[in-house]
Each structure stands twice: as C-alpha cells, then as structure tokens.
From TrEMBL, chains A, B:
<dbReference type="GO" id="GO:0006334">
    <property type="term" value="P:nucleosome assembly"/>
</dbReference>
<dbReference type="GO" id="GO:0005634">
    <property type="term" value="C:nucleus"/>
</dbReference>
<dbReference type="InterPro" id="IPR037231">
    <property type="entry name" value="NAP-like_sf"/>
</dbReference>
<dbReference type="InterPro" id="IPR002164">
    <property type="entry name" value="NAP_family"/>
</dbReference>
<comment type="similarity">
    <text>Belongs to the nucleosome assembly protein (NAP) family.</text>
</comment>
<feature type="compositionally biased region" description="Acidic residues">
    <location>
        <begin position="338"/>
        <end position="351"/>
    </location>
</feature>
<dbReference type="Pfam" id="PF00956">
    <property type="entry name" value="NAP"/>
</dbReference>
<protein>
    <recommendedName>
        <fullName>Nucleosome assembly protein 1-like 4a</fullName>
    </recommendedName>
</protein>
<keyword id="KW-0539">Nucleus</keyword>
<feature type="region of interest" description="Disordered">
    <location>
        <begin position="338"/>
        <end position="359"/>
    </location>
</feature>
Amino acid sequence: MSMRHRPALAQHRGRSCHLVMDAIKGKGEQGMQNPGGQVDRPVGPHFLESMLPKVVKRRVHALKRLQVQCANIEAKFYEEVHELERKYAALYQPLFDKRRDFVTGTVEPTEEECEWHSEREEEEELAEEVKEKAAIEDAKKEEAVPREDPKGIPEFWLTIFRSVDMLSDMLQEHDEPILKHLKDIQVKFSEPGQPMSFTLEFHFESNGYFNNAVLTKVYKMKSEPDASEPFSFEGPEIIDCEGCLIDWHKGKDVTVKTIKKKQKHKGRGTVRTVTKQVPNDSFFNFFNPVKGEQHTEMNDEDSEFTLAQDFEIGHFFRERIVPRAVLYFTGEALEDDESFDEEELEEGDEEVCQHKHHR
Amino acid sequence: MSMRHRPALAQHRGRSCHLVMDAIKGKGEQGMQNPGGQVDRPVGPHFLESMLPKVVKRRVHALKRLQVQCANIEAKFYEEVHELERKYAALYQPLFDKRRDFVTGTVEPTEEECEWHSEREEEEELAEEVKEKAAIEDAKKEEAVPREDPKGIPEFWLTIFRSVDMLSDMLQEHDEPILKHLKDIQVKFSEPGQPMSFTLEFHFESNGYFNNAVLTKVYKMKSEPDASEPFSFEGPEIIDCEGCLIDWHKGKDVTVKTIKKKQKHKGRGTVRTVTKQVPNDSFFNFFNPVKGEQHTEMNDEDSEFTLAQDFEIGHFFRERIVPRAVLYFTGEALEDDESFDEEELEEGDEEVCQHKHHR
C-alpha cells in the first residue's frame, strides 16, 4: 500500500489534548465528552505551554523561531518541485501530443505502437466472456455503417466526463454534443519567476457552438507561508481561479436558458408574457467566473462550497485526468481510485455523498 | 484550503461504472444497488473497451503503451524529488541540530533567538486567563525546587509521544521513563544510486535500560512501476522495514515479561510452577522485526494490518513529527491535523476509531 498520502495519517492525530482546549474555549459539548477515554493524560497543548516554567517556555519559543525558518525553507523546496514539474511536463508532452493525434485520428498508430498484452488473468477471462458478444456487435456495426471506419477514438473525452463522478455531476445532456468536439486537455505551468499557477486548456475542433479554439481555466497558487500563520503552511495551495469568455454562436449558449414569465400590469390589470434569460446548469459554467475574485459577492457559505469544489476539480484535471486520460476512458483508473478510496476511508460512503456536487 | 492531497479527490471517483463490473464479476449485492441513480449511463469500463470496434480498440492499446511510458517518466520524476528531499534535508539539518541542543540543554538560546510574539488573538486572551494560574504554579515550582532550573525542555519527545494518538496507542507506562532519555529523532535518506529508503534514528542519552546510543528503523521503498501493473504506480511506496537489536541491560527489556505458569506432571500428577518469558506491549516493539520480510510467518490478515500501521507510523515520523516536532509538543500541529481532518472527513470520527492501533 502506498503511504505517501497525508490525510490518511491525519486520521491519527491527537484528539484527546484538544478536549481540554475546547472546554476552555467553550467550543461546545464536544469538550465535555470523552471519546478516547483518556482523562488521565497530562494537560493539553497550549495549556501545557502556558504552564511551563518561564525558562522552558523561552526555549520553546526558540524552537518556534526555528520552525518558522523551516517553513521558509520548505517553501523553497516546493518551488523547486514546481520547477521539476515544469521540466517533466516537457518530457510528457510528446507522449500527450501522440495521444491527441491518435484520439483525433490525425495519426494512425503503427502495429508496433499498438501491441498490448493484457497481464491480468481476470481481464482475459472476462475478455473471453464478452469476445463473442463483441464480435456480434462488431459485425452489426460494420453492417450498419459499412466501409466507414470511425475516426480516431470517438467521444474519448466525453466518455471520461461521463465516467468520472466529479465531472458527470456537472455534465448536462446539452453539453454532450459540444464535448464530442473536445480534442485535448492540456496543463500548462507558470513560468519561473511568475506567481505560481497552472492553466487547464480545453482544445476544441471547430464546432457549431462557439468560436474559441481553446477554453482556459487558470488556477492561481500560493506557495509561501502566511506571515501570520507560518505553521499552517503545507505546500502550494490553490487560492483563486479565472475562467474565460466563451464566444457562443447566436442561440447556442447552453449556460443560459430563456424562460417565459407572466407579468401583470399594476394599473390596468392586464397580463403579458415576457421572456427572460436565466442561468442554466452546464459544464461550461466551469469557465465562469471569467475574472477571479468575484466570488465574494455570492452567499458566503455557498460560494465557499462551490470554490472548494472548483479547486478540487481543477486539481483533479491536473493530477489525474490529464496525466492518465486513457485509464479513465477504459475505467482502470476508476478502479484504482475506488480501491484506494476504500483503503483510506473504509465505510466512508456517506462522506462521499456529502461531498457530491450540487449546482 | 489545500488541494494538494489526493485522497480527498479520490472520494469523487466514478462509482457508477463499477457497478456493471461488480455485477459481472459477481462481487455481491452492491452491484445490484444503484446508489448514484445512473442506470442510463453507457456501459462500464473494461466492458466498454471490449465492445469497441477493433480499429478503435487498437488505438486505445496505443494510448495504453504511451501510458506505460508516462509511468516510467513519472518514476524518474519521483527519483528527482527524492534527490531534492536529500538536498533539503541538509538545509534543515543545522536547524534541527539547534533544536536538539535547546531540547537537551546543551546550548541556551540567546535573547534574540527566543523572541516570540503570539499573533493569534485568542491565544493571547487565553494567555491572560492562565497567566495568573501559571504565575502561581511557577511560584509553587520555584518553591518546591528552589534554585534548580530544569535542563533544556524536559520530556520534550515523551510529551509528543503522549500527545499524538498514533504514538500514544503504542506507549506503555513502562516505556515512559526510557523515552525521557530520548534526545533526538532524525531522518536519513538513502544515498543516490542506492535502493530508495529512509532511516529513522532515535538518539538516546546514556541510560539505565540499554547500551545503544541510537535505535534505528529503516523503511525500504519501491520507486518504479511494477512491470505487471504499471498503471498502479503512484510514486514511491514503503515496501518493507527493518528494526534493530536493542542491547538491553539485564532485566530491563520491557518488550518481554515473565509469567508464572503451573505445570502438571503427566504421570505423577504433581504441580510445579515454571516461569516463562512472553512478549509484552511496548513502544520498543517498533524496532521489531530486526530483519525485514519476516512478517510472512504471521497470520496473514493480522500481519498486513500491523505492517500497514507500521508503515504509516514510519511515514508519520518522517513527514510530520521530525520536521515539526515543536508543534506537536505545543499541540499546534494537533489542531492543524484536526481541522484538516474535519475538512476531509467531516463526520469521520467512526473511521478514526476503526483505524486505531490494537495490539
């Protein structure tokens, strides 16, 4: 099992010591409970610190100053990791370009490039089972569309959008014909010396919906410790995002819908019907807001939820979907995520439901 | 909020597609349920792949070959990250050495080195509240032990062991007097060219329990994709560990206890009492097994649990405790872990309990 992932570890943090603090701070009933049964432990954290003899407290403060220096060094470490990521992005790019060419059908892979042996026995067994069915299906298809082979891998990205819950939650029926024109998704990292960020580029073939060849979403990151809270630094984090303006063809904007509304004239009492444009559910809302930092206008709690979701989706595109798209297309990555998830959370399904994306 | 952490994302993996597979593979009732309400989705992953027209399947195989190449590049990336970690370990070391010297009292920090302003208002309020109490306590202490200032920061590491659940679960009463002699914990990374590993070094001052000045635990890592499962590669993972032999003073080994057992003579029927040494709960079992890969002898399920726990503890020492020890001493890191945990898991307390360490 992989032990690289911190959150699993965070599950084992010391709760007992906090009960003391919670009780002092009046944080509610929790402080009165005793889930760990650890009453007889020495006093809690800050409390303990306050109770230390002055000479010792002095030394603890010295350690804290060292800790701030550590956080500053750590920030430099993460900058170098970002540089490494830029360096490796360039190494992956030729492979991703090939992927795009195979997906769009611009280039046909050679025999050698297609050689593939399924190592997993169960896969092979399954393959046996469905081979017959598939053969029949193939025959049917070839009958139905004779001599017209599909170009590249049809609906490659759309299939991924359908398969990954985080994305399918955003996907609407009217988005699907548009996403059939999605050719590629790329991640671009900010240049050295620039504020740290990454950009998701959605490349489209020319289509009947909008004029843009590329839709972009920029995620801005913060990569240094906060002066007021240096110890909370855990590496770069997404702090803001910025979408782009979609140049929709007339009447093709799926992010708005026209509703009819009856209006009563105050004086005369006559009723007339007016049409009004209102926001519509769509994946393409992902490119809103066009400018970052507009979200403060929204309901506070609501906007925080949406932003957290948005950052998570951006991160997921960058870390998972783009680097291993084919595995989301075939479903292999979904299996990995699932078994991984089970390992981390065990009976955590309720959590998953709570985190679902509602728009 | 930080979006660096994958497991949070994994919560959003596509479950719907798996239901098809689960049903096919006969994985139980789950396949019959429909939690996502997504019946009308296109067919599931491998299944989908099998149903593709041959020409398309060929191209998907080409993408898979590209994906294997990506995994190999990724392995090189993680090797470079390991190198970066080695480089930064050297930059942190002078600060950690200072920490050790302040903790043990070998060096007294200067006035400048101790300057510390508490930025958080609530902390200051709290400080006011307890200042009086503390003053009284201080007075009492000075009365009780007049003219004898404590050396360094007494019980620094022991306090951390007591505060962090993952460690306190292992901690026994008889371990505490021994851990009072723990001077420092260091992490050492494997040299370049060597198989990837890290070593935890527990440095002790001379004590009445064992002769070792340093107890070590090596964690061996695997940093390249598995040939049979290249897509499951997610970066280096701990694959094995190796403790060390503790040279206990006679009768001081807390990892064994002597029990008395009544033995009945088969023929004569007389009863005699024999003494027998049996394993005893102790943190110092952490240095067992002395040699790696002995665990196969154990009960399979049980040993896997213990190993997973052990790897997690090793990782936690490396990633959290050693780099930010003072914050675990004061409790600040516990708060961070907790709020972090709440963000990730929300009502996940039950999970935490399930993951607890039982020996």
